[in-house]
Write a structure and sequence with these properties.
heterodimer, A: about 210 residues, alpha+beta, Protein Transport Mog1p, Chain A, 8-stranded antiparallel beta sheet, 3-stranded antiparallel beta sheet, disordered N terminus, B: about 400 residues, mainly alpha, Serine Threonine Protein Phosphatase 5, Tetratricopeptide repeat, 3-stranded mixed beta sheet, 20 helices
């Protein structure tokens, strides 16, 4: 469509967006992970992926240390995020203090429904979700403790339905969470076994 | 976290840049446009005859196909039929030609496209308190069409810039559709791009204001409601900005095109007084409005409150509560505090949940969050009772398994 040219034309006038460029400037923001036990996030959690995923290179000022992002087919189709020891008062994503709409900060006394609501706001505020449906919230052991599993789906402003599963627990007042989110058509089912294998392999550093 | 968020912020950056580059309207003070001078420039069944406008219509027909097919549309015939009736009442001579689409986007916006189809965002339905206000906004958008603002603005851009590239063509189309603030949903793929690139001039907005007031007054709606809804929107933006410690300035959109928004309010009030015929009965049709929009409010409020914009949401809830508090509004008041999540907010939130569950229309979720609050302060017997109430109201709740574990 014609107006796509306008987006491109406007883009050329902006010099400093190459660090967010997703790879089209000749270098990659991703590196392959090996199929062996790996430390993720800030290093306190380790997992063994069943095949090579692509690890997103942390971006200064944009990413936070307690969170690491992976993808198999690109972030618009699927993604996995590891939250390793998010402290009370911190949020899942870096945000401007004066942004009108904000993802709520994590608190160490949060119950699973509150963590689920925080994840929902992440998608609504930063992910462009216009509809978000909680499919189920249930208890599930995680990292040897009482955790929870949240299943959800959301319709985003790019008109695609996506589906996600998050498994997490609060340990010593910090949030540990592995979250998988993918296009509902094909990609979710295709990589869910990877996610489950990774959850099963997850271990805290002693 | 949320790898897609990076992609999105990048895209909105590009769209935002385009919008800023395209804004070159002059800001001249102007006299009030009198409603009596606003005669429609198109009649029923209008079709373009000049080559450039025919081209514009062809493009727009493709856009309408996409809109009509969008996943984001709310298609419940009760609400879409209601909106179609309103535009059929305040659409002037083109009333029967207009098409109207409702999109689920939690922002205040309505956009008229050059071929006579309008897109209303669900956030607009949440912010209007009666049918007269909704008809006022729709009448304003009809005014843009009846005064041929789209083709006029496009021709004006071409004359000024002397660019005939594809980009300029597309930008002109953008000018045609540009209504009011599109918010962060400027990311909305194609639609967002075309509607944010250009804006109507202040003169055109003044014309559409005058035309809109005239259209609704003629249809028997209380004309003063229009200035009330604009005033309310400014109030909401101010509350949102003040809350985050910044000035009301969203960069581009409705209010930047109109730095003199106070004088615009004054003009709208003068228009309303001028149009009011002594002895004629005007109505705001709130009862009819609530019958159709009321059932959508739980979803609309949910979409707004979960954006965690406490200043705006609290202002909005208090505004709606001017028509009377109920369990739904008290519940969402609690949600605002809970999501804000500052020290002491848990107590404030629970006060609202507790108030909510005292109303017969309290949503099941109010019982659930009330129970969570009770549990956290150690009142476990009461918490279990409240959880039980939640499950009774919503036996197949998605979190039933977790709740049952809490009840023990």
């Amino acid at each position: 469509m014609n107006w796509k040219f306008v987006i491109l034309a406007a883009g050329l006038a902006l010099p400093s967006c190459s660090s967010l460029g997703g790879g089209e400037y000749g270098f990659s923001d991703y590196s392959l992970v090996s199929v062996r036990r790996l430390q993720v996030g800030d290093g306190r959690l380790s997992v063994t992926p069943p095949r090579s995923w692509n690890r997103h290179r942390p971006i200064l000022f944009e990413d936070i240390r307690a969170v690491e992002d992976w993808t198999l087919n690109g972030p618009l189709l699927d993604g996995m995020s590891f939250v390793t020891g998010l402290k009370s008062g911190k949020s899942l994503i870096r945000q401007r203090r004066r942004a009108s709409q904000q993802v709520p900060a994590f608190r160490d006394n949060m119950t699973p429904p509150e963590i689920a609501a925080m994840i929902e706001s992440l998608y609504r505020v930063r992910g462009g979700a216009v509809d978000f449906r909680t499919l189920s919230l249930q208890p599930r052991p995680f990292l040897g403790t009482n955790g929870f599993q949240l299943d959800y789906e959301h319709l985003d402003e790019d008109e695609l339905w996506r589906r996600g599963r998050a498994v997490g627990a609060v340990i010593n007042g910090q949030l540990y969470l592995i979250l998988f989110d993918a296009a509902k058509a094909h990609y979710y089912d295709a990589a869910l076994p990877d996610f489950e294998a990774i959850i099963a392999s997850a271990e805290l550093k002693a | 976290m949320c790898p897609r968020c990076l992609e999105l912020s990048r895209r909105s950056l590009l769209v935002g840049g385009g919008a800023a580059a395209a804004a070159f309207h002059t800001a001249l003070a102007q006299a009030r446009v009198r409603p009596v001078d606003m005669v429609p420039l198109v009649g029923a069944g209008y079709r373009p005859t000049e080559r450039d406008e025919i081209g514009l219509w062809k493009e727009m027909e493709r856009v309408e196909e996409e809109v009509a097919d969008s996943n984001l549309l709310i298609t419940d015939p009760k609400i879409t039929g209601y909106l179609q009736n309103i535009i059929g009442t305040v659409g002037g001579p083109a009333a029967r030609d207009f098409r109207i689409y409702l999109m689920r986007i939690p922002e205040f916006n309505a956009i008229m496209f050059p071929t006579g189809f309008a897109v209303v965002f669900s956030g607009l339905l949440l912010r209007t308190r009666n049918e007269a206000q909704l008809a006022g906004i729709i009448g304003h958008e009809s005014g843009h069409f009846l005064r041929r603002h789209m083709i006029r603005s496009w021709r004006d851009q071409r004359r000024k810039t002397d660019i005939f590239s594809i980009a300029a063509m597309a930008a002109g189309i953008g000018g045609a559709g540009a209504g009011v603030w599109l918010g962060d949903y400027a990311q909305l793929a194609e639609l967002g791009t075309i509607v944010t690139l250009f804006k109507y001039s202040r003169d055109m907005e003044a014309e559409a204001d005058a035309m809109g007031v005239k259209l609704i007054a003629n249809a028997g709606y209380e004309p003063m409601e229009i200035s009330d809804i604009w005033q309310q929107l400014i109030g909401e933006e101010e509350a949102s900005a003040r809350y985050r410690g910044k000035k009301r300035n969203r960069g581009y959109g409705l209010f930047e095109t109109h730095p003199a928004s106070e004088s615009r309010m004054a003009d709208l009030r003068t228009d309303a007084l001028e149009l009011t015929v002594p002895g004629k009965v005007y109505d705001n049709h709130r009862a009819r409005f609530m019958e159709v929009v009321g059932p959508l409010r739980p979803t609309l409020l949910d979409d707004q409150v979960k954006l965690n914009d406490p200043g705006a949401s609290q202002y909005l809830i208090e505004t709606l509560a001017q028509d009377g508090w109920d369990g739904l509004l008290r519940f969402h008041e609690g949600e605002v505090w809970r999501l804000r999540n500052r020290p002491g907010d848990d107590v404030r939130a629970d006060q609202s949940y507790a108030a909510s569950v005292a109303y017969p229309d309290a949503p099941a979720e109010a019982w659930r969050w009330h129970a969570v609050s009770l549990m956290k302060v150690g009142r476990s017997a009461e918490a279990k009772a409240a959880f039980g109430r939640y499950l009774k109201m919503k036996p197949d709740a998605p979190d039933a398994a977790w709740v049952r574990q809490m009840i023990g």
